Amino acid sequence: MDFGVYKRVVIKIGSSLLVDDQYEIKQVWLASIIEDIHALYQEGIEIIIVSSGAVALGRKTLRCIGRKCTLAEKQAASAIGQIQLSRVYQSEFAKFQVTSAQVLLSIDNIETRYRYVNAQNTLDTLLKFRVIPIINENDTVATTEICYGDNDRLAARVAQMVGADLLILLSDIDGLYSANPNIDETATFIPEVVLIDEHIKKMAGESHTKISSGGMITKILAAEIAMNNGCNMLICNGKPAHPLKRLETEKRYTLFKAQKVDQSAKKRWLAHHVKPKGDVSINEGAVRALLLGKSLLAVGVMSCDGNFKANDVVNIKDESGKTIAIGVIMTSLETLRHALLASNISMAPKVIVHRNNMVLV
User: DSSP alpha helices (H): ranges in 131-189?
Assistant: First the structure.
C-alpha cells in the first residue's frame, strides 16, 4: 500500500479493535495506530477517523455486561463512553502536538441536504486547520429508526461527504473471502473487487464478536457507497499493533476499486440514502418517462405512503413495488394523498419530483 498517492483518507476503527473484553480501551494498540496516523499526517495527508467504541466503554459503568442492553441503556452508555473516547484520542494526539476534534453525526445530518452541506463545511474547515476529526454516530439521541446501526456505512458516507480518495476499514479479518473462513476451510481470499454484485454480497457473513455490531455485509455496503463516489476502499486486519504500517509492508488486504464518477454530487448524495421518508407508487407510463430521463409528474402517481414533507427524500416504485428511483419530492404526503383521494391531481404540484433531484436505482 502506497499512501503517498492519496490526499484525504478516512480510517474507520471498530469497537472490537479499540475495546477489550473487559470494556476497557486497548491503550497500547491505540497508541500504535495514533503513531501510524501521525506519520501520514506529517506527509501532508489529511486524516478523518470514524471511531466506534462509545457504547462499549459506557457499558461497564452501567453494569450492562453479559446481557443485551435496552435502547435507553445503550444511549446512556454512549453518553458516558463518548467522553472517555474523546479524552483518550485527545491525549494520544497531544503527544505529537496534533489537535483532534469530536464530531457527532446522525443519519439526519447526512440525509437532510442542508445539514449534510453544513457538516461538510465543518469537516472541510477542520481539515483546513490541520485538525483531525474523530467522528462517531450520535447514539445518544438516535433510535433504531434514525440510525445507521454500524459505523462502516457512516464512514463511507463521511468519505463521500469530504471527497476522500481512500477509505480504510480496520477489521478483525484481513479482507474479503469467498466464504466465512472461520467455518469454511475452503474459503479463498479475494485481493481485489472491481464490481459489487449479488455474488459478492452473498460472500458476506455476520460479526462474530460480542463487542462489534457490524459484519462483513455492512462493509460490502460501505464499499458500494465509496466506490460509486470515486473513493478506493480497503478492508484489512487491524488487530496487530501498527496496522497502518503493516499495510505498507505486508500488503494483505482487499481493495475495492473506485468507479468513474458520472453523476453530480447531489445525485450521488441521493443514491445512498438509508432511510427515505416514504414511498410513491407510479403507473407504467410514468416509469417509461423516468427511464427516458424525464421528471415525475403528478398524473403518474397511483398511491403514496410514509411520513414525508416537501423536500424530503422518497422511494419511487413501479406497480409491482420495485424501487426504480430515489428523489426529493416537492409536496407533502398530506397534499398528495388528498389530491389522490379527491381524484383531482391538480390540487398537487404538476411536477412531483424534478429530474435534477432524482436518481434511478
Answer: 151-162
Residue 68 is given by DSSP the state P
Write down the H helix ranges in 257-316.
265-271, 284-291
CA–CA distance, 187 with 93 (Å, rounded to integer): 39
pLDDT of residue 141: 66
H-helix segments, 95-170? 107-111, 113-128, 151-162
Look at residue 212 and tell me whether its pLDDT is greater than 50.
no
Q: In what order do the strands lie in the sheet with 358-360?
A: 301-306, 278-282, 313-317, 323-328, 358-360
34-61 mean pLDDT: 94
Give the global pTM. Answer: 0.85
* 96-110, 145-159, 247-261, 305-319 — most confident range: 305-319
Contact assessment for residue 209 and residue 172, using Cβ atoms and an 8 Å cutoff? yes
Q: What beta strand segments (E) does the chain contain?
A: 8-13, 46-51, 100-105, 132-137, 166-171, 176-177, 189-190, 192-193, 232-237, 254-256, 278-282, 296-297, 301-306, 313-317, 323-328, 351-353, 358-360
d(CA 306, CA 207): 32
For 298, the 3-state DSSP assignment is helix
Distance CA 202, CA 183 (A): 15
SS3 percent helix, strand, coil of the chain, rounded to 5, is 40, 20, 35
pLDDT confidence band for 146 (50 / 70 / 90): very low
Q: What pLDDT was estimated at residue 142?
A: 62
Identify whether the C-beta of residue 141 lies closer than 8 Å to the C-beta of residue 176: no
